[in-house]
C-alpha cells in the first residue's frame, strides 16, 4: 500500500464519520452498497450462500449491526442470530456465523451483552456450528478476548475471534490464543486507530501479519487468513508449500462482492476459501470500511453508478 493509499484510507474514514455525510449516504447510497451486501433478509443471504457453496466456497454469515444505543436492540439482534443459526442448519449450508459484540450490547451492559452472545453460541453448538466473535476497534479488544475465553471456560469451544495485525499488542495476543486453543481469523485491521495502539506504516502491518500466519502454521494450528492482498495470499501458499503443510490446514477468507472470481479460482485450485456474507439494513459502517480499504473499491462503486 502506497503513502497515497494510506492517506486515502484515513481521509475516507474521517469523512465517513461525519454525520451529514452518513445521512446523505444512507439516503442515496443503499443501491451502491448492495455490491457488498447479500440482501436485506436472512432468506436472501441464505440463497447467496447456496450459490457460493455450489461453487466450492464456504461462508460465514453476518447480520449487520454495531454500536447500538438501547439494550432492546441487542435482544432483537440476539433473536435474529438464533433464527440465523437455525436457518443455516435447516438449509445444511456450509457456513459459520459471525457477530459483533457491540451489537449484542457489550458497550451498554457487558453482562447482558455476554448473555446475548452466549445464547447464540449455545444455539450454534446444538447445531454443530462455529461462531466467530468479530473484533471491532481497539477500545473493545480486551473485552472481546475475555468474552471468548469465558465462553470456552463454560464449554462453548465452538467459538473463536479475530486478531488485527496493525495493533501493537497482537503478536502477544496471538501466542496467548494459540496456547489456549482459541481459533482465530487473522486480518490486517480496518478501523481508524491512533499511533499509540496501532502501526501506521503499512510495511510494519504486513510484517506482523506474516508473523501471525507463520506462528499458526508452524504450530499446526488451523489458520484463517482473511485478506484480498495478492502478496499475502501468494506468500501464505508458498510458505505452506515449502514446509509441506497441507492446504487443509488453513483457509483464505474474503468478503462478499470483492474478488469473487479470485475466490472461485482458489476453490478450483483446491484451497479452502470462505466468503464473509453480510446481510441486513444497518450497512453504513461496514460499507464505509470496505470503501476505505483501497481506492479501487470506491472506483468500482462509482462506475456502477452510471450502469
TrEMBL record:
The species this protein belongs to is: Paenibacillus xylanivorans
GO BP annotation list: L-proline catabolic process to L-glutamate
Q: Which EC number applies?
A: 1.5.5.2
Which keywords, in A-to-Z order, does the entry hold?
A: FAD, Flavoprotein, Nucleotide-binding, Oxidoreductase, Proline metabolism
Q: What does the entry comment about cofactor binding? A: Binds 1 FAD per subunit.
- Cofactors: FAD
For FAD, which residues are the binding ones?
135, 164, 188-190, 227-228
> Per its UniProt record, what InterPro entries does this chain match?
FAD-linked_oxidoreductase-like (IPR029041), PRODH_bac_arc (IPR008219), Proline_DH_dom (IPR002872), Proline_oxidase (IPR015659)
EC class (word): oxidoreductase
Q: Which residues does the record give as substrate binding sites?
A: 100, 289-290
Q: What is this protein called?
A: proline dehydrogenase
Residues forming the Proline dehydrogenase domain are 45-297
What pathway is it annotated to?
Amino-acid degradation; L-proline degradation into L-glutamate; L-glutamate from L-proline: step 1/2
Query: What reaction does this catalyse?
Result: L-proline + a quinone = (S)-1-pyrroline-5-carboxylate + a quinol + H(+)
- Any GO molecular function: proline dehydrogenase activity
Gene3D superfamilies per UniProt = 3.20.20.220
Amino acid at each position: 500500500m502506497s503513502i497515497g493509499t494510506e492517506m486515502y484510507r484515513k481521509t475516507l474514514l474521517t469523512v465517513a464519520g461525519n454525520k451529514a455525510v452518513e445521512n446523505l449516504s444512507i439516503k442515496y447510497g443503499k443501491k451502491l452498497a448492495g455490491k457488498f451486501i447479500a440482501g436485506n433478509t436472512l432468506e436472501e443471504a441464505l440463497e447467496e450462500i447456496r450459490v457460493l457453496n455450489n461453487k466450492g466456497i464456504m461462508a460465514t454469515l453476518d447480520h449487520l449491526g454495531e454500536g447500538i444505543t438501547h439494550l432492546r436492540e441487542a435482544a432483537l439482534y440476539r433473536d435474529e442470530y438464533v433464527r440465523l443459526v437455525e436457518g443455516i442448519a435447516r438449509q445444511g449450508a456450509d457456513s459459520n456465523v459471525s457477530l459483533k459484540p457491540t451489537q449484542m450490547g457489550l458497550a451498554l451492559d457487558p453482562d447482558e451483552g455476554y448473555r446475548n452472545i452466549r445464547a447464540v453460541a449455545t444455539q450454534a453448538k446444538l447445531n454443530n456450528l462455529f461462531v466467530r466473535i468479530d473484533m471491532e476497534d481497539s477500545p473493545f479488544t480486551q473485552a472481546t478476548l475475555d468474552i471468548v475465553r469465558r465462553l470456552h471456560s463454560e464449554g462453548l469451544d465452538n467459538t473463536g475471534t479475530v486478531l488485527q495485525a496493525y495493533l501493537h499488542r497482537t503478536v502477544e495476543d496471538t501466542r496467548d490464543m494459540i496456547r489456549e486453543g482459541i481459533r482465530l481469523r487473522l486480518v490486517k485491521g480496518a478501523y481508524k486507530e491512533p499511533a499509540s495502539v496501532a502501526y501506521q506504516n503499512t510495511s510494519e502491518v504486513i510484517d506482523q501479519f506474516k508473523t501471525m500466519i507463520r506462528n499458526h502454521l508452524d504450530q499446526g494450528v488451523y489458520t484463517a487468513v482473511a485478506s484480498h492482498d495478492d502478496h499475502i495470499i501468494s506468500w501464505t501458499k508458498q510458505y505452506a508449500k515449502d514446509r509441506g503443510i497441507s492446504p487443509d490446514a488453513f483457509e483464505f477468507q474474503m468478503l462478499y462482492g470483492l474478488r469473487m472470481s479470485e475466490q472461485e479460482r482458489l476453490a478450483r485450485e483446491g484451497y479452502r476459501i470462505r466468503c464473509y456474507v453480510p446481510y441486513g439494513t444497518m450497512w453504513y459502517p461496514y460499507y464505509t470500511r470496505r470503501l476505505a480499504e483501497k481506492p479501487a473499491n470506491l472506483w468500482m462503486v462509482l462506475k456502477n453508478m452510471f450502469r
